[in-house]
Amino acid sequence: MDSSPFATAEDSAKPGWLRRLYDFVMRLAASPKAELWLALVSFAESSFFPAPPDLMLMPMCLARRDRALRYALICTVASVLGGLLGYAIGYYLGDGLLRLLGMGAKLEAFQALYAKVGVWVILIKGLTPIPYKLITIASGVAHFDLGVFVAASVATRSARFFLVAILIKLFGAPVQAFVEKRLTLVTTGFAILVVLGILALKFI
Prior knowledge:
Number of strands: 0
Mean pLDDT: 77
Shape: elongated
Number of domains: 1
Structural class: mainly alpha
């Protein structure tokens, strides 16, 4: 029997390890300490854990729609704090790893490029399902401005999690089913709107 009431036929077709990870995260969402697990998963996902916190956030918001915004806030705070761990990993270990791989000569060029476009990378990638851990570690490797990194992370993580929470709070299960299947489309579309809004404010 399927361990998750939110599973679909598409979920059943996932590779064994991914399916087990999905079921594990869904069990955490139904546990008495779900809020603590939500914070831990959100924190860990920002630096090393493979499963996105959305897997827990959505069913928790559906079960307690009155707490949806609270859950989104937990996700945001924990994710940004976890992002600082990912940043530290890249900052302190990235240089040595790149030099060990013979890529040290490209490090300064990468850091110079990231200094110019890093904030856009964080804003856009942080909203989409592309692993946020890649952005946090890359930002550390690039020695990107920490204050800007934190500000951009707060903006992009809160936008993503509150978007999901508000949609489920307002519309319930039908929206959850759509978001689960079309999370990339939903968050990417929202990311485009955010970027367009920033550009409009800049040039108006």
